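Predict the holo structure. Ligand: pyridoxal-5'-phosphate.
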Amino acid sequence: MSAIPQLSPEALRQLAAELRVSYARFQSQGLNLDITRGKPCTEQLDLANGMLAGCENEYVCDGVDGRNYGGVDGLPAMKAFFADFLEAPSAQVIVGGNSSLALMHDTVLRLLLKGVSADAPAWKNQGPVKFLCPVPGYDRHFAICETFDIEMITVPMGPDGPDMDEVERLAAADPAVKGIWCIPKYSNPTGITYSDEIVDRLAAMPTAADDFRIFWDNAYAVHHLTDTPDRLKNILSACENAGHPDRVYVFGSTSKVTFAGAGLGAMAASEANIAWLTKLISIQTIGPDKMSQIRHLLFLKDMAAVDAHMKKHAAIIKPKFDVVLSMLRDGLGATGCAAWNEPRGGYFVSVDTLPGCAARTGALAAQAGVKLTPAGATFPYGKDPEDRNIRIAPTLPSLAVIKTAMELFILCVKIASVETLLDEKIV
Ligand code: PLP
């Protein structure tokens, strides 16, 4: 078959008739499937059930009673664990509550209200605050900005990271640009890992704001889908070497290692940043859940154990990614109607349709009983200017659900493409 955009109007009409029949067949099935969010599936969660066993007498760690208040920055052994996980000295680590997103949210809020250090002015007292947002990106980062009236400026993502010419230009030009969101490894949703050059440029670039900060959300640091993991340059050291030791906050969590929502969030930064944030965090809490930290330490032990554990995750989810990718290749590869990434890790496949087709694809899928992540969700304010990007999250559904949902998805991409080319609805 020729690529769909090259078909004549008659050929497009004939194809439309065939697609209409296939779509009606799906509609008659009464499907009710959901492939919207990047959650671990039950089998993945079961891998960490051992963490719950035999802990009733395990509440003291290095002489600290985990049942009592205190340890606002985490148990020393847990800080040492996350020092390896986040690749930072343990004195520069805070182990927080159950969520790295909560740490990001609270860090943004703290800087808005109190500034980046004791003697820096609060962001909110300096006029409008703007963040650079590589797109497509993570909807919950954008929601934090939207909630706190931080203006979002989009920057296109490339195969090695954000368009750095654009990032450097924007950061150098405007002191209101205070931050950038980065998901540097197996990015959400495009799956790419930042190159060394991009890490170095982020660390070294001149910024108009003295209090510019990089929010380095390394959510998928250990979530490999291959035996040859991507390597990410250490941005903390890069910033230090570039003379900007305070520029970056690094975040991570065990949400998709142990339990999503009952894992541990942690962050790393310069000593000065950690001292300031620890002071502010100690106003909020007398200490995190150290019992969860002890359970994690007993179960995960060290990075070698984490790597072994993550191989079990990959064994469960890799076949799901393989099905999604082979169905995309077979179903859309020759159509000229879509492009997608082949992730080496992380939780997502990012599909770009023809311009103007993503929202219609989602609506068609929904009408036939399959919920997709809403088109636009990967862009600030939920608005994809080209209406192209759709994020597919294969981890949670079963293989059978993925197969059915992907069949319908592929059909809907074709229908939306033919409709755009004919400039009329066909179903
Ligand atoms: N950051 C990214 C990029 C994510 O994709 C997710 C979850 O999907 C999170 C953070 C949430 O992390 P946590 O569970 O540690 O709050």
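Residues 303-332 form the longest helix (30 residues). Residues 38, 99-101, 138, 183, 188, 217, 219, 253, 255, 260, 265 surround pyridoxal-5'-phosphate (CB under 6 Å).
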